[in-house]
Design brief:
single chain; 349 residues; alpha/beta; Rossmann fold; 2 domains; seven-stranded parallel β-sheet; five-stranded parallel β-sheet; 13 helices
């Protein structure tokens, strides 16, 4: 039987496979004997989807990539917070959390810098033909054997689909590098909000037509699923590059493959896939004008530390009956059921 007398934090099973060795120091640092929080492993979950029986054992959970559906929350009355390590939450039904008086918190401060750096790593790798150069050298060739030369950054336009937390950090880092223009498309951002970064807000089609690098920096939701397809790739310059470090399903995968095979674009840097891990016969793996990474380009020692610290602070705040940072479903705060949970934690503190 679950212990209901103290505050319990469940750690989703994927931490023990995908982040083993990285999350344990965070847990030890924040949830010692004096923290008032008992941190334990969540039981294995079928199909990587949370069960009500598991969720109802905990007041909060650390979530890496666990799916939470409306069915996951059936009869769940104990859970108060899902503390996501990261900023994407397409695997979580936020409306269902709200209806069950559960708060979702993310870690924007821990993510923005490493993801922005990852995007720039792909910009440099693509612009400098890094992987072609590596293959030529390993095969015993030399610079005269290179099929094409790389380029310098000046004269190029950097574009972003989305200009939120990560997009703005990308532009902040990119501004001194000499890009001719920094442009973005985001229906929720005004020109005045990003003028200090030197960013020009443009419409969706202009972004694709005029960018030399189109980067994806938006959430996956019903509006953005399949957002980029044949039409958008046909708008791009043949010399342009496409970079996706956000979520695979934002891009129509077959359309991306066609654009690369038919040389409609010069190349791509892809860190995310529609299915993860992707099948071994994914056609992107056969293409020399595409750099692929295993949704880990931003997974640094620092991102694990900082995501963990931010998520831990969120959990500790809730355990004291206080509101944390990074709240996604802010409307849950006014719900009587959620307020009763907070009052119960305050009475323990």
């Amino acid at each position: 039987m679950a212990n209901t007398s103290g505050f319990r934090l469940g750690i989703t099973p994927d931490f023990y496979t995908d982040a083993q060795g990285s999350f344990e120091p965070v847990v030890a640092r924040h949830f010692g004997p004096d923290s008032g929080v008992e941190a334990v492993a969540m039981p294995p979950q079928p199909g990587k989807t949370a069960t009500p029986e598991a969720l109802n054992q905990f007041d909060a959970i650390f979530s890496l990539a666990l799916k939470i559906s409306p069915e996951s929350l059936t009869g769940v009355d104990r859970l108060t917070m899902v503390a996501r390590w990261g900023v994407g939450y397409d695997m979580i039904d936020v409306d269902a959390l709200t209806a069950n008086d559960v708060m979702l918190c993310i870690t924007p401060d821990g993510v923005r810098r490493p993801v922005a750096e990852a995007i720039l790593a792909l910009v440099f790798a693509l612009l400098k033909n890094l992987f072609q150069q590596d293959r030529v050298a390993r095969a015993g060739g030399w610079r005269g054997d290179l099929k094409t030369l790389g380029h310098n950054i000046p004269g190029h336009v950097l574009g972003s689909i989305g200009c939120g937390n990560i997009g703005r950090e990308l532009f902040r880092l990119a501004a001194p590098l000499g890009f001719t223009r920094l442009i973005a498309c985001d229906p929720y951002v005004t020109q005045d909000q990003v003028a200090h970064l030197g960013v020009e807000m443009v419409d969706f089609d202009t972004l694709f037509r005029e960018s030399d690098f189109v980067t994806v920096n938006t959430l996956l939701n019903t509006k953005t699923r399949g957002l980029v397809g044949d039409r958008e790739f046909n708008l791009m310059k043949p010399s342009a590059f496409f970079i996706n470090t956000a979520r695979g399903p934002i891009v129509q995968h077959d359309a991306l493959v066609r654009a690369l095979r038919e040389k409609k674009i010069a190349g791509a840097g892809i860190d995310v896939f529609p299915i993860e891990p992707p099948p071994k016969d994914d056609p992107l793996f056969e293409l020399e004008n595409c750099i692929v990474t295993p949704h880990a380009l931003a997974w640094t020692e620092e991102i694990m530390r900082d995501n963990g610290d931010e998520a831990s602070r969120n959990v500790l705040a809730i355990s004291r009956g206080e509101l944390p940072g990074g709240i996604v479903n802010r409307e849950v705060v006014e719900r009587p059921g959620f307020q009763r949970k907070l009052a119960r934690y305050r009475s323990r503190a």
